[in-house]
Design a protein that fits this description.
Structural class of chain C: alpha/beta
Distance between the termini of chain A: 12 Å
Chains: A mainly alpha (320), B mainly alpha (274), C alpha/beta (325)
Strand order of the largest sheet of chain C: 6-7-8-3-9-10-12-11
Order of helices and strands of chain C: EEEHEEHEHHHHEHEHEEHHEE
Number of strands of chain A: 0
Structural class of chain A: mainly alpha
Oligomer: heterotrimer
Strand content of chain A: under 5%
């Protein structure tokens, strides 16, 4: 009763911290970008631009105002969802629209990959821990080490070669957005999701296995056995439950990878996501888009981290 | 030390890593080819005795390119992680030892950097600073800085409370020397583990960015550019992409096993907290 | 082998297999405990007393090998029972109070959760009528001397002190109403005042339940206080077994005599405490008396001849070559 109020208070304090970081992030993104590239007018119009053209450009895009004002305009716009308009990569299209149409794709692949990784790691980690030291444990751990030793983009090609071009089971390119067809998204998104999931599954499996093995040897497990509880009951409540916190923590740490690691994969599989957008914008030197993408990623990561933090607190009786 | 040699993982890992390092350092000299030698009579030749990894679309010997490329990737990654380690550890140690305002600010900045997905941060920096190898190294440095800062800080906080450190302080030892002599050696092992892992992942980041064309620029070899080439004519000559991928994987495997082994050895003695 | 014995154990042997080495922790002990009796197991660290308790309840880790010639409970032979079958006894007829209360609770669950499942276990196996388990849990916490049972019920293990947790652990075991309780050094990790209270508690509850207790301790005075019969253990075997009062007033085995001397010396606060030098060494099977290297009454033949348990009085045995003269 009083405990809930305290948790709410702590949760909102943490939220405040998160908002602070988001703000600092926005500052960083905006000013660093400007510092690196000075005048967007030159990049948009080219080196041969006349001073009048530059001035017109400045006026048009509001670049004649002092920097902090520009920052404020950008930030306040971003808060209500207006990132401005793309200059070069998709001329004239509002950036918010670009992001809105692509964010679901990136998130879908990320979530899909997370699901695959968690499923594999739950199975592999549990089996490896329960059969600790035996053959299947060695197989699982070796698999895990290999999983994190393969660059994800190389793995993508291995998958494409084997499953798409070779066996023809999955498409090697193209992605059907979930908003168009969920089944299509699941089908076309399988290979990229697996490619993203592989190193994560490896890391999760290792962590779960270690946490389970460590918990299995704790005193309270022996006490539970002395009380004659069934093996399943002991595993669920005494072993797994206590291994959950480090497991969920490592999942939380990997979320950054989930969202950002897809950058190259999106390019390989032709998925129209934020990562691909950012890369295209990088090549097209459309800095406002790059900025907006960076900020979007930051907000996504912060949100997910915040949620994971809350889950961990809920799981851990010591933080009550 | 003895435990280290007895540990199978560490042994295999260091063996592989040493082999890779050796190959990368000496290999390029031993090779009769140069990475840019084009032999137009042997385009896209499959692996043979003359060209163990085959040739690419310019007739360049892939093995030589892989060795040079590996060297570049390793140097870029290692220098980035090293910079991250130096800066991050200093920041972490300082914040742990002095606390107060400086600690808060340092940790907030570190948290901020950590909140960007690695590739995104790298991409962003590359856009700001420009393409090329040195900038990738800088990106890698910024990506890993928070990790080292937090690790160094957490461990230093634990060690700081130890009796011998407080004794040194009471005896008038300067802060600097306490940090260097008392605290640092005790946290060296977990730092090394993170270093190895960082180099491994740094290679992946560098290769990834070079692969999409935002890193090392062709014709300079980097594992990423080689794989990008290999991707172009994947159907006709799958060996380029495959073998260069295998090369990266071996290097990563060595580093991962090595850090696993060290972690195993360390575990009963010192629990590394991240 | 008495007919009325609740638990009968013949030649229990437990060894740890580490790599190629086999380290014997318990080297063949036999005893029986009657219903309602408090049987004490005394020994210093490394004597094998905790391992004995764990072996009886089949709680040893997989790399340990436990063997017994015969083991019967209420007349039924347990040696052929599978682990699943044995589980029907665990927590129902046989229960254990562990040494470290803090580590014995599931850190993720509240005390009420622990008690609830213990109650449910008992009800399921002893087919009782239901009632609110919460009332019973509160009552039992009161019985063990916890003053604010509702608060403790809602607490998590890390929020309670060692003494409180030990009481809760005892409460949980008592609630199961087992026929035999193995208490492994239940007061070692507690301070003296709490120790007294816990001992009184155990004694009172044991009388109320009519349960038999295998009381494991290193402390002679506690054993004298609470046990009916005791067995002194050294290097994995019994060196003296008999009625508690008798063994402690007049120990026959040199080791038991030394223990008594050190204990009384401590109580008297002698200026120079009586000490028993050395420690139990590496176990070498069948090479004479295990205590020979530390024994003040050692004879030359002690190094080569292994003594057997000899009857020195009615119901009182001792393992020493001195008795064989």
């Amino acid at each position: 009763m009083g405990g809930t109020a305290l948790s709410l208070f702590r949760a909102s304090r943490r939220l405040g911290g998160v908002i602070l970081i988001a703000f600092l992030g926005a500052v960083l993104v905006f000013f660093v970008m400007r510092a690196g590239h000075g005048d967007p007018a030159l990049s948009a119009l080219g080196d041969q631009a006349t001073p009048e053209a530059i001035e017109a450009f400045h006026k048009h895009w509001g670049l004649d105002a002092p920097l902090p004002v520009q920052f404020w305009r950008w930030l306040s716009g971003a808060l209500i969802g207006d990132f401005g308009t793309s200059m070069t990569v998709a001329g004239g299209v509002p950036i918010a629209q670009l992001i809105a149409s692509r964010l679901p794709n990136t998130l879908f692949i990320g979530l899909y990959a997370l699901l695959i990784a968690v499923t594999i790691s739950l199975a592999a980690g549990t089996i490896a821990a329960l059969r600790h030291g035996r053959l299947i444990d060695t197989v699982a751990t070796s698999g895990a080490v290999l999983g994190i030793s393969m660059p994800d983009f190389w793995l993508s090609y291995v998958l494409i070669y084997l499953l798409a071009l070779g066996a023809g089971i999955f498409p090697s390119y193209g992605f059907v957005s979930p908003s168009i067809s969920l089944a299509g998204a699941i089908y076309s998104g399988f290979l990229p999701a697996v490619a993203v999931a592989a190193p994560m599954a490896a890391a999760f499996t290792r962590m779960l296995r270690t946490a389970l093995i460590e918990t299995l040897h704790r005193d309270h497990v022996r006490v539970a056995r002395s009380l004659g509880y069934s093996g399943a009951f002991i595993f669920v409540h005494y072993v797994f439950r206590n291994a959950l916190i480090p497991y969920v923590t490592v999942i939380g740490l990997q979320v950054r990878y989930l969202l950002g690691g897809t950058v190259v994969i999106e390019r390989i599989f032709g998925i129209p996501g934020i990562g691909a957008l950012m890369v295209d914008a990088a090549f097209a030197r459309d800095y406002t888009v790059v900025q907006a993408c960076a900020l979007t990623f930051l907000v996504c990561v912060l949100t997910v981290n915040y949620v994971v933090d809350l889950i961990c607190s809920a799981l851990n009786p010591r933080s009550a | 030390m003895r435990a280290f040699l007895a540990n199978k993982l560490a042994l295999v890992g260091s063996f592989i890593t040493s082999f890779v390092l050796l190959a990368v350092i000496i290999g390029p000299w031993l090779s009769p080819y140069s990475p840019t030698d084009a032999d137009f009579l042997a385009l896209l030749a499959p692996p043979s005795l003359a060209h163990p990894f085959g040739t690419d679309s310019f007739g360049r010997d892939v093995l030589t390119r892989v060795l040079y490329g590996a060297r570049v990737s390793l140097v870029v990654s290692a220098s980035g992680v090293l910079a991250a380690a130096l800066l991050g550890c200093s920041a972490g140690l300082v914040s742990a030892y002095f606390g107060g305002w400086s600690a808060s600010i340092l940790m907030r900045i570190s948290d901020l950097l950590f909140s960007f997905p690695s590739c995104v941060l790298a991409l962003f920096l590359v856009v700001v600073l420009g393409f090329g190898a040195t900038n990738i190294a800088a990106s890698i440095a910024l990506i890993y800085l928070p990790l080292f800062a937090r690790l160094a800080r957490n461990m230093a906080l634990v060690v700081k409370e130890e009796a011998w450190v407080q004794a040194a302080h009471l005896m008038g030892q300067s802060t600097f020397s306490i940090l260097g002599r008392e605290i640092l050696p005790n946290i060296a092992a977990p730092l090394f583990v993170q270093f190895a892992l960082g180099v491994a992942f740094g290679i992946v980041i560098e290769a990834g960015l070079s692969f999409i064309g935002l890193g090392v620029q062709p014709p300079n070899p980097s594992l990423g550019t080689i794989m990008a080439d290999g991707r172009e004519y994947f159907q006709r000559a799958p060996w380029v992409l495959t073998l260069s991928g295998v090369a990266i994987s071996i290097a990563l495997l060595g580093l991962n096993l090595l850090s696993d082994g060290i972690r195993d050895v360390m575990d009963p003695k010192l629990k590394a907290r991240l | 082998m008495t007919i009325s014995a609740l638990l009968d154990v013949a030649n229990l042997r437990t060894a740890f297999v580490v790599g190629n080495e086999r380290v014997a922790a318990v080297r063949g002990i036999s005893f029986s405990i009657d219903a309602g009796e408090i049987f004490g197991l005394i020994g210093e660290s490394g004597s094998g007393k905790t391992v004995t308790g764990l072996s009886l309840l089949r709680l040893m880790p997989p790399h340990a090998s436990v063997a017994v010639d015969a083991m019967s409970f209420r007349g039924k032979d347990l040696t052929s029972w599978s682990d699943e079958e044995f589980r029907t006894l665990q927590g129902v007829e046989l229960a254990m109070i562990f040494q470290d209360p803090v580590g014995s609770f599931n850190p993720a669950k509240s005390i009420s959760w622990h008690l609830k499942h213990a109650i449910l276990r008992r009800r399921a196996s002893k087919s009782e009528t239901d009632g609110d388990w919460r009332d019973e849990a509160e009552q039992i916490l009161c019985d063990v001397g916890i003053r604010l049972p509702r608060r403790v019920l809602g607490s998590y293990p890390h929020q309670l002190s060692g003494g409180m947790l030990q009481r809760a652990l005892i409460a949980m075991v008592i609630m199961l109403r087992p026929a035999l309780i193995i208490a492994d050094e239940p007061t070692t990790n507690l301070d003296n005042i709490v120790e007294r209270q816990i001992l009184d508690l155990i004694r009172a509850q044991q009388r109320k339940l009519g349960a038999a207790v295998l009381f494991i301790t290193h402390d002679l005075t506690i054993a004298a206080d609470i046990c009916d019969r005791i067995a002194v253990m050294y290097a994995g075997e019994f060196v003296e077994v008999g009625p508690a009062r008798e063994v402690l007033d007049n120990p026959r085995h040199p080791y038991a005599q030394e223990l008594l001397k050190t204990s009384t010396s401590l109580e008297r606060r002698d200026e120079y405490l009586h000490e028993l030098r050395g420690e139990p060494g590496a176990r070498r099977e069948d090479q004479g008396c295990a205590f020979a290297s530390r024994c003040p009454k050692v004879l030359p033949k002690c190094a080569s001849v292994r003594p057997r348990l000899i009857k020195v009085e009615a119901n009182h045995t001792s393992r020493c070559l001195l008795h064989e003269q």
